[in-house]
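Entry 12.
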Amino acid sequence: MAESEERAKSAAVCENCDEIVTVWIWPDGDIQPIGDSNPCSCVDPEFRILNADPRST
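Predicted 3D structure (tokens):
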């Protein structure tokens, strides 16, 4: 996950439709897709951060 002082960039999956998207993770824990405000077809998407290291789950 690439990091900056304000936010971190990561991959996430929508729990409703399984669409993979790139997201910003803000210091308060808020997850927002990069670019389009709604990158999948879900009315209310729920994103889960994908973990690159399976040992850290």
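Annotation: The chain has a mean pLDDT of 83. The CA atoms of residues 1 and 52 lie 8 Å apart.
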